[in-house]
Amino acid sequence: MPIKPTQGLKNLSSNNLRYDLSQIRINRSISELIQMGKNNREKIPFEAFAQFKPVKRDAVSGIKHVEHKLIQELLPLRHKRLAASAFSFFRGTDELMAFDLSKQVSSNIPVVISGDAHIGNFGFYASPERKLLFDLNDFDESTIGSWDWDVRRLLVSIVLAGEQIGLNLAQSKEIMQSAVETYQQILSECFDEHSAMERYYFSTEVENFLKQEADDEPLPKLWRKILTSASQRDSEQVVKKFTTIDKRGHLIFRENAPRTVHVSDKRFKEISNHLVKYDQTVSPDVAVLLSQFHISDIVRHSVGVGSFGTRCYLVLLTAIDGSHLVLQIKEALQTRRFQGFDVTTPYSQNGPDNGERIVTCQQVLQRASDPLLGFYHNDDSNRSYYVRQFWDMKESMNLTKMDHDDFQTYAKICALLLARGHAQSPTAAIVRGYIGKKKKLANSLVAWAASYSEQVHKDYHNFLTALAANQL
């Protein structure tokens, strides 16, 4: 079934679904914003960040509620992924930390945040010009929120991922310290040395990072290997790995139940119709490109850890010249909320479509995004989805293969990119004024992250206990 030509943006839903970015727009000069941040230190001193305040909640109950909305037959595989390690559990249960963060001391200076900026959510992908980029690459929890939520999640992930490669807490604290100092340095440079346009045009191209190998701190050795393998991950490679020829001679996806299964005829038609809505959210040049393709096959295909069990699909498209494109459709769930644990912040919005929220925030935080990135809303089921290319030079670092030095360099690069992403919000100038360059902030955030990592281990233990008792 062909994707119908776009009818233009005028056919999109009414404006009450638009994600509102007015909270990060402010009519002040950079110097005024920086001074606002400095003044805020008197109200919320750095020392107030240091102590983790335990929150009364039941982690297992929270997980159950989240999973109530997921595909039930996939839960055993999801549980297996969560149980792999404390870091895997942390990756897949971001709602627990979000609730805990909402009860901690925060500066509450808003920027567009990833919402899930752990060290495993940075990776490689292709720019529209087919250059290999390295940047944040997961935005399911992205929203407008306090900058420190992202920084704290990055720091805790350093502790938990560090444990997997044999780092002790003292070594992890050293790496966390350097990550915070990098974040401070980059944010300072963004607003003290660079113009708005220079901040916008900052390059995350991998070749630029590789050129820095002559510096005192070379990049992880794994990057060269990734550069080669990522360039080979495109739709044609997906076709070779994931498809087969059926009895009628048609190219179709290969099944691997329950992770990968073909959709019903009814769902096939539903998704085909919804891709027409998606087509109206991409740029005109992409719409023209898509008009050359027809849908050959669709499967439900689950990926990730936290998103495993959500409604995700792969769509095989064939062009009029016989080439292929594989789109990934992912369900966009409401961010950070589950029964009994309301994670409402001063910046929460109830109106926007969640697919549009994810796409909007991704385009703000990333230097360049997938040109095929778009979204649609299923009015019948009231579910939101976002659409992107599958694979398309996407690759991630294998953290377990890193040594101490590589891991420290990698963590600093992630902190650099996080600061660059936050700096796209004008309000980040207030953050720059608040955080300054002193080590007091790093000391406090590192102490908090070390304490919170113990909470993650407690939650992980309770999860494993409930799993063994068949309570999940």
TrEMBL record:
<dbReference type="Pfam" id="PF10009">
    <property type="entry name" value="DUF2252"/>
</dbReference>
<dbReference type="InterPro" id="IPR018721">
    <property type="entry name" value="DUF2252"/>
</dbReference>
<protein>
    <recommendedName>
        <fullName>DUF2252 domain-containing protein</fullName>
    </recommendedName>
</protein>
